[in-house]
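Bumping with the actual sequence this time:
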Amino acid sequence: MAILFRLNVASKDTIVIDLFNDVPAFVAAAEAGSFAAAGRKLHLSRSAVGKAIARIEARLGVRLFNRTTRAQLLTDEGRAFLARCVRATEELREGAALMEAGRSKVRGLLRVTMPVLYGRLKVAPLLMLLTDEHPELTIELDLRDRRVSLVDEGFDLAVRIGPSETTVGLSSCAIGKHATLLCAAPSLIERLGMPSSLGDLDRYDALVYHRDNWSERWTFPDDGGRMTLIEPTSRIRAADLGVIMDAAISGRGIAWLPDWLIEDELESGRLLQLLPDLPVRQRDINLFWVTTPTIPGRLQLAIDALTLTVPMA
């Protein structure tokens, strides 16, 4: 049913201002079910609540409550007006919180967890710059390659590399993607030649990421969305991508490394990309934080800094 409110005063601005003054009494009465209970909540008399609601009814030209000796029950018009009042009140509260966050200084402790190497090279430098601009901000950076629970371990923000995911109670946003590339030193290519297909990779020693008795397999998508998995034979394995990159630069084998790690080496010529026309696997880089009605200023500051400035592939 469409509810139409008839305005009995010429000035709409005056009506809106007067309604704002009396709306809290109306909402309290609707929620409490009686004028007396609303008065106790607002520290007003029952009569004052009744007069406030009567003024609203007079301005709108509708009856909001059906009054009995025991209770005040909302009419259809009252229920429709209550829904709009609640929505407007929530908007006002959120707006006030945003303004307060903008006026207040960024202060307090911000705890961020992130992968070791990506965090050290790409995330930590940006977050440390925030402490230069905000003297009352303290940051605690946790660098580890295993995922942690933000709630259980008390972190404000997590940087994660991997498939996008939906987690109940967490909000997220993407800050980029990275591609994993095959690469080798010019000295190795001079000795063994440039590969022309994945089948040629058997001619080279591989430098492989290995941790906890697990070796990473190299994954290559084709144009049809299928994946080719390669288990490279290696004599050098390490649980640190930086070590693998150093070994590749020294000519000890070919490596499969993220572009953000080797971009400077590719640009300088210390490493060469192999099979550059081959489709590459891309992985998402996301931020996660605990969902709350209002994001603290220090957390919003970090999210904005990483969303706007972390290099995207």
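The tokens above came from a reply further down the thread. The two ends are 52 Å apart (CA to CA).
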